């Protein structure tokens, strides 16, 4: 039987393609169109309203010379590296524990995943209570007789980023655990049997055999975690409001404040473009990685 040529393939599954057309148009117009619009206006002197008064790289030069933006980038780098490493490590350890087919596994999975069901605003408020020196951890420990104990990270510029980190990991580790657990359950049982027959210790099996087999699962987790790190905003507003001072500022808050608070659209667009570049730096390698896997298969 002769194969159908390209014109005929174009009309295969036309119902599905027709149904996907609105989504494709939305992606092209709303996401790609608005992103390009933002990039173009980042080179203008727009203030309260957008205007095509080009100033070259002036907005970017001002952006990278602003101490507040520099602090926000440093905070995001520290938060991002620690959050990525700790979330993956904690998520994998919890996934390994759950993979032992323990009793009440469904209940533990629900408890672990529950924080992810909360919004960052709720998470920020909860951790604000936990870290409040008047009725939080400091108050509880002092009530146990340690009257000299001091723990007030929300008002300490050197510790406030760690408070954000604890709250972020508390919320995000559950999703990572569930994804990695699904990856572990996808490992063929014959792999474990062969490892046991060869006398390979369990920890070596996980590190040298299971982890390499789970590269695609870890790649997915890295993309999800990284995207959440770059757009970090709600948690900061709810927990620290960027304080004390500018000690916990992040790029997303900088964008919002300049666009809607300071009414400086050009500066906000420039900061948004830098965030977009960071997102593309994550998504493009992931897409190439997935494309390479499909070609190898």
From TrEMBL:
Principal location listed in the UniProt entry: membrane
tRNA-binding listed as a keyword: no
GO biological process terms held by the UniProt record: transmembrane transport
Record field: transmembrane: 21-43, 76-98, 110-130, 159-184, 205-230, 269-289
Keywords: Cell membrane, Membrane, Transmembrane, Transmembrane helix, Transport
Family designation: Belongs to the binding-protein-dependent transport system permease family.
Official protein name in the record: Glucose/mannose transport system permease protein
Organism for this UniProt entry: Paracoccus tibetensis
């Amino acid at each position: 039987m002769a194969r159908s040529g390209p014109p005929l393939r174009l009309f295969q599954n036309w119902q599905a393609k027709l149904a996907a057309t609105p989504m494709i148009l939305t992606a092209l117009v709303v996401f790609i169109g608005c992103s390009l619009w933002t990039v173009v206006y980042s080179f203008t002197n727009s203030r309260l309203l957008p205007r095509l008064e080009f100033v070259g790289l002036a907005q970017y030069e001002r952006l990278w010379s602003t101490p507040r933006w520099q602090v926000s980038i440093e905070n995001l780098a520290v938060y991002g590296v620690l959050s990525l490493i700790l979330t993956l490590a904690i998520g994998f350890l919890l996934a390994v524990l759950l993979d032992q087919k323990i009793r009440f596994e469904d209940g533990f999975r629900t408890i672990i995943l529950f924080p992810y069901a909360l919004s960052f605003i709720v998470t920020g408020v909860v951790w604000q209570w936990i870290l409040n020196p008047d009725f939080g951890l400091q108050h509880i420990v002092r009530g146990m007789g340690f009257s000299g104990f001091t723990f007030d990270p929300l008002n300490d510029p050197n510790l406030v980023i760690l408070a954000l980190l604890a709250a972020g990991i508390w919320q995000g580790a559950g999703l990572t655990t569930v994804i990695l657990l699904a990856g572990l359950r996808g490992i063929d049982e014959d792999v474990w049997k062969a490892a046991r027959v060869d006398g390979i210790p369990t920890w070596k099996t996980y590190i040298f055999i299971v982890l390499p087999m789970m590269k695609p699962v870890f790649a997915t987790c890295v993309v999800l975690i990284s995207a959440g790190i770059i757009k970090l905003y709600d948690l900061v507003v709810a927990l620290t409001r960027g304080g004390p001072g500018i000690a916990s500022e992040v790029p997303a808050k900088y964008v919002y404040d300049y666009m809607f608070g300071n009414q400086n659209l050009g500066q906000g667009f420039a900061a948004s473009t830098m965030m977009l570049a960071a997102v593309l730096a994550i998504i493009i390698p992931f897409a190439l990685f997935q494309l390479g896997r499909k070609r190898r298969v």
